[in-house]
Design goal:
With 549 residues, the protein is α/β, with parallel strands linked by helices. It has helices at residues 7-18, 28-55, 72-75, 79-85, 91-104, 117-123, 133-144, 148-152, 165-179, 190-200, 217-232, 237-250, 259-271, 287-292, 324-335, 348-352, 356-368, 437-443, 478-483, 506-548; strands at residues 208-210, 252-256, 278-281, 297-302, 336-347, 370-376, 390-396, 408-413, 446-450, 456-460, 473-477. The strands form two sheets. The chain has a nine-stranded mixed sheet with strand order 3-2-1-4-5-7-6-8-11, sandwiched between helices. It has a two-stranded antiparallel ribbon with strand order 9-10. A hairpin with a 5-residue loop joins strand 9 (446-450) and strand 10 (456-460).
């Protein structure tokens, strides 16, 4: 009998099922990719069965993104028996052929829509690595035990906002892989994403962009946020459907450079019932991308990678420095349209480092944009990937020369996010409020006023700035920031510095030293390359001179 676990156990169920692949000696990244594709086959079949029940008839192959012979319920009961009955050697041979077929199959419906587009993107380029029929039998048996349709029909959340419980469970699975350091660098914790979306408050009709979308957390949450606004709007069902279709097809743009991670993001969106968003497997730091995305987006939400770049960047940035966070920040500043706003996670070193180019980038951000808030996060928020100190920077691109630029910045120091800051990230007593994050959102000073001609202005919720001050929050004026050479770290302006000295945990200090060691190693590699190049030029010149004599 099929089980119907709730969200609290569903993520664990998926994690246990994914571990079936350990017997097939697959690498963790291969396990996640293969499991995700089988999970998709099961999910898609459940949705197709639901559609058939509504129509009162079976669907034909020309109506199906996955043809009838590959429908999960048809072969999963006895994969080897089904394979042999249909001319395949065994279930491994059948599944390999199925994956290959789905990677190339194209079907256009009566309206001219390519209904197999996302299926091809998911299965394209996949190498089927399973070797044992026992692995396939164990996998599909466990998946058959899950009643996914009933799970997907459930809703949680406030004010009738419907979260896709299946998508949430899949994010849990990604996080579990992340705790093994397989995908942690591509996964931003859900509670951090939630708060950033809350303060940016994306609106219906706005274009939302994440240039380093990883597994798709920001795009997924922005989709849920705007979808909730559409559902609460007092309009006809037809108009709601039109707005929702526009949201899916035009207003959610995510770019991910790593092919496998791009597939995980695409899967994440599909499992949240949106397979139509404009997710792209591309490089946001290329020359082409600087032109394509220039002055284009109303909202940017991102947690870009940080640290030394792994290759020479070809794009011509105004300030060219081999640090991901510096290049991505410039890209996002370029990609916002006038009146657009952003909330981005940045490594705190960028905000205070004395390197000339980093100070120039911060100067441009402060002087040519409107920096509104800097929210300091504690070390360890992004464990196990990194113990680096980070901050969320909230800024807006002015509508024109006469629009306001940075005049003052609100700083908030988050001491706790409701979880242990070590590698395990265990819940703490203040877990229900995500530590200080609830308080931070309630105290955030700004709301957004949408202008008739497009774009927004940041409007203070009250004239008395002291209403937004606390032991954890304070203001700094533009003159104070200029006096510190555009230092944007919260601690630099904290009026409570003398009240307490917090000693960081050993693991945090060790993480910081490891990061510093990586940066020093990269600098030494570059220096060695320069010295080697100089020596080679000297030898070549000497040879030429010798030849001339």
């Amino acid at each position: 009998m099929a089980t119907t676990p709730d969200f609290n156990q569903f993520g664990e169920e998926l994690w246990e099922i994914a571990n079936v692949f350990r017997d097939d000696a697959l690498h963790a990244t291969e396990r996640l990719e293969t499991f995700s594709l089988f999970l998709f086959l099961k999910l898609w079949d459940e949705m197709a069965l639901e559609q058939e029940e509504a129509l009162g008839r079976p669907l034909k192959d020309e109506e199906l993104a996955i043809p009838n012979k590959y429908r999960f319920h048809k072969w999963a009961g006895d994969p080897d028996g089904y394979a042999k009955q249909n001319g395949y050697e065994d279930s491994v041979d059948f599944c390999r052929r199925m994956f290959d077929d789905l990677a190339t199959r194209k079907v256009v419906d009566q309206y001219g829509k390519d209904i197999t587009f996302d299926v091809r993107r998911l299965f394209g380029g996949t190498v089927f690595r399973l070797r044992y029929t026992t692995t396939i039998r164990a996998l599909v048996y466990k998946l058959n035990e899950l009643n996914l349709r009933e799970i997907m029909m459930r809703g949680v959340g406030e004010s009738g906002e419907r979260f896709d419980i299946f998508g949430r469970a899949y994010e849990y699975l990604l996080q579990q892989f992340g705790q093994n350091k397989e995908f942690a660098e591509y996964f931003t914790p859900r509670h951090i994403v939630d708060r950033m979306v809350q303060i940016i408050d994306p609106e219906i009709g706005e274009t939302i962009y994440d240039p380093a979308c990883g597994t798709g957390g920001f795009i997924v949450r922005a989709f849920e946020w705007v979808k909730g606004k559409i559902n609460r709007k007092n309009i006809s069902a037809t108009e709601k459907e039109r707005l929702l279709r526009s949201l899916k097809e035009k207003h959610l743009i995510g770019v991910e450079h790593v092919p496998l991670v791009f597939k995980l993001a695409l899967m994440n969106m599909i499992l949240h019932k949106d397979g139509s968003s404009q997710l792209q497997n591309d490089d946001s730091l290329s020359n082409k991308a600087q032109d394509i995305h220039k002055n284009k987006y109303d909202v940017i939400l991102a947690n870009p990678p940080f640290g030394p770049t792994k290759q020479e960047r070809l794009a011509q940035f105004e300030y060219h420095i081999k640090l991901y966070e510096a290049l991505f920040l410039q890209h996002m500043m370029n990609a916002l349209r006038p009146g657009g706003r952003a909330a981005v996670v940045l490594k705190e070193g960028l905000l205070f480092d004395s390197k000339k180019m980093l100070r120039s980038i911060c100067r441009k951000l402060v002087e040519q944009f409107e920096v509104l808030a800097v929210i300091s996060l504690p070390n360890g928020v992004f464990n196990p990937y990194s113990g680096a100190k980070t901050s969320i920077v909230v800024f807006r691109k002015p509508l024109g020369r006469d629009d306001v630029h940075t005049s003052k910045v609100w700083f908030y120091r988050v001491d706790s996010d409701g979880r242990d800051l070590g590698a395990t990230r265990r819940p703490l007593p203040d877990f229900a409020t995500d530590g200080d994050l609830d308080h931070m959102v309630s105290l955030f000073p700004y709301t957004w006023r949408h202008e008739k001609d497009g774009g927004v202005r940041a409007i203070l919720k009250a004239d008395d700035l002291k209403q937004f001050e606390s032991e954890k929050s304070w203001w700094a004026t533009i003159d104070q920031i200029r006096a510190t050479d555009y230092n944007l770290t919260a601690g630099r302006y904290c009026p409570h510095q003398a009240e307490a000295v917090e000693h960081e945990k050993p693991e945090v200090l060790i993480n910081r030293l490891l990061e510093l060691e990586e940066e020093i190693t990269e600098d030494l590699r570059q220096l060695l390359a320069m010295v080697s190049s100089t020596n080679l030029e000297g030898v070549s010149q000497a040879n030429l001179n010798g030849g001339a004599l």
